[in-house]
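Researcher: We plan to redesign the surface later, but first we want a full-length starting point. Tokens attached.
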């Protein structure tokens, strides 16, 4: 490249190609993520033409992971994390074990020794943070129960991965067939104890010191009134804590960033902090996919078709089945189990780190590495498809009891239907919804709220307002709110596209239901009306009307 600017060329070529391929595949209705991966393949060493610097691409991807995990932490409280431990901990452990055993079995068939087989299996066991979070965020599932379980599960996998990285070097001899007696117990116990101690020290430091200092710092900066400084503070905190955690405590960047976000989640500034990181986060997440694509050697598809198929089978079906089974065993619903298993049916960044360590310790052959890398890119590509399939399966189940339109729809078992009738269903209890709610209460009109923000849900519960928690666009929600018997539906959320989905679903349940929705532009009004809203209120227009009225009053 010109002037030898590898960082710049990797960023620029990466983003430009990702944009081109993303836009192209979007046209044929494939997730843009596939386009980003293809951009990576084109920039990678296995295809002719420009080859970007893999190390730089990987580092850029790490920044993407940090910002993503920070964002997730912002939506998470310690209580949330604690509340899913009963399922996330055994779930992740069972799934990792199942994947390891399956990987080992495949390795055995390919003629590898036990150590290499186990290493291969471990590399197939952990899902990619970025892929999982993107899928969850796209569906606004992060703040729902299944979202929390998946994130908790991810945290356990992350810690397991950190431990594996530490334990592999001392265990490498044993795994490669050295006699067990040659390895003193202390060589194993020490690194394990030290690593666990460091993780614990980091967590305690964050909870005791970080919890006070970081929100204080952000509040202080917020009061300076400088948007630029506030933005900078958010980035400095997320990246700084993640980096410090990795350097000083040997925990992963992802875990460090997650904690930095989590201790901020209690502060009211967290929403603002989250929105500040969004654009940069999305750009770096794109570079993550590009960096994955660069690792892919397409020739493996013709050289090793059968082992590759077996690898894919383990990641897509073996791991999913194990996850599905354990979530069901713990008494969660079918749809929760399906969502979680779909979100985990891929592998990514952890696997890349594990395979490179495996190869350097002679615990993995180049062939094993190539299979893992190919498995990663293909399963990441297939993941959106997996979710689409899931949506279809759930929708079919939902549509199964096809009743005449005026009959009460038969809900699926997991959400009880509200006993309220002739009530108002209010979607969203933010700036708009809460004002409406107060008026309804004052007018003694029965109402029920659908809300997905944990903080708001807590407040609603304290005020003893009926609330159904989760995304109103998700299956079952409107049925559970008994919209069929309601006097009206108010869609008071800012996102008109999601609003459109909710309106369409409600309209499918009842043709007579009065639906009033919220919009911010003419296009949104048309969109919502097209989906069946009777009336759409545009916030900006109402503000203007009120201003005109007030100036009229003042000048009269
Ligand atoms: P505001 O823009 O301040 O009126 O806030 C909108 C509120 O709606 C927030 O509290 C969001 O958590 C909530 N919200 C947004 N989208 C959804 C959704 N799809 N389902 C349920 N609640 C939502």
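Model: Full-length starting sequence:
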């Amino acid at each position: 490249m010109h002037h030898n600017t590898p960082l710049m060329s990797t960023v620029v070529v990466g983003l430009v190609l990702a944009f081109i391929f993303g836009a192209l595949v979007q046209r044929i209705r494939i997730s843009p993520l596939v386009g980003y991966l293809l951009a990576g393949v084109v920039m990678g060493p296995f295809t002719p033409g420009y080859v970007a610097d893999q190390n730089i691409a990987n580092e850029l991807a790490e920044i993407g992971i940090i910002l993503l995990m920070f964002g997730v932490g912002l939506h998470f409280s310690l209580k949330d994390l604690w509340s899913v431990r009963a399922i996330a901990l055994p779930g992740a452990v069972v799934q990792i074990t199942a994947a390891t055993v399956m990987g080992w079995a495949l390795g055995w068939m390919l003629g590898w020794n036990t150590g290499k087989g186990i290493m291969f299996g471990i590399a197939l066991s952990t899902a990619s943070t970025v892929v999982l979070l993107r899928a969850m965020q796209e569906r606004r599932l992060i703040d729902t129960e299944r979202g929390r379980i998946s994130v908790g599960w991810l945290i356990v996998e992350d810690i397991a991965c950190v431990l594996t990285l530490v334990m592999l070097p001392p265990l490498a001899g044993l795994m490669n067939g050295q006699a067990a007696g040659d390895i003193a117990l202390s060589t194993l116990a020490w690194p394990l104890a030290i690593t666990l101690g460091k993780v614990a020290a980091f967590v305690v430091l964050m909870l005791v010191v970080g919890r006070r200092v970081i929100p204080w710092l952000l509040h202080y900066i917020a009061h300076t009134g400088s948007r630029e400084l506030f933005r900078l503070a958010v980035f400095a905190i997320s990246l700084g804590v993640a980096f410090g955690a990795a350097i000083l405590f040997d925990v992963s960047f992802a875990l460090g960033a997650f904690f930095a976000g989590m201790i901020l989640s209690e502060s009211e500034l967290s929403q603002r902090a989250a929105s500040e990181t969004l654009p940069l986060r999305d750009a770096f997440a794109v570079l993550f996919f590009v960096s994955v694509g660069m690792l892919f050697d397409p020739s493996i598809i013709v050289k090793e078709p059968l082992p590759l198929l077996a690898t894919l089978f383990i990641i897509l079906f073996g791991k999913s089945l194990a996850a599905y089974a354990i979530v069901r065993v713990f008494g969660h619903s079918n749809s929760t189990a399906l969502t979680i298993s779909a979100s985990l049916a891929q592998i990514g960044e952890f696997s890349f780190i594990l395979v490179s360590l495996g190869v350097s310790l002679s615990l993995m052959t180049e062939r094993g590495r190539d299979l893992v890398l190919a498995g990663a890119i293909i399963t990441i590509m297939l993941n959106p498809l997996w979710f689409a399939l899931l949506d279809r399966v759930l929708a079919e189940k939902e549509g199964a009891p096809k009743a005449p339109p005026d009959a009460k729809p038969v809900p699926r078992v997991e959400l009880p239907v509200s006993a309220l009738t002739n009530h108002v269903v209010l979607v969203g209890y933010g700036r708009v919804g809460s004002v409406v709610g107060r008026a309804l209460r004052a007018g003694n009109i029965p109402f029920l709220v659908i809300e997905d923000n944990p903080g708001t849900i807590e407040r609603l519960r304290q005020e003893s307002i009926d609330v159904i928690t989760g995304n109103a666009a998700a299956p079952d929600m409107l049925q559970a709110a008994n919209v069929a018997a309601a006097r009206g539906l108010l869609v008071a959320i800012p996102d008109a596209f999601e609003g459109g989905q909710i309106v369409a679903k409600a309209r499918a349940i009842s043709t007579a239901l009065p639906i009033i929705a919220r919009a911010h532009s003419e296009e949104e009004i048309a969109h919502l009306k097209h989906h069946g809203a009777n009336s759409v209120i545009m916030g900006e227009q109402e503000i203007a009307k009120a201003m005109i009225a007030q100036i009229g009053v003042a000048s009269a």
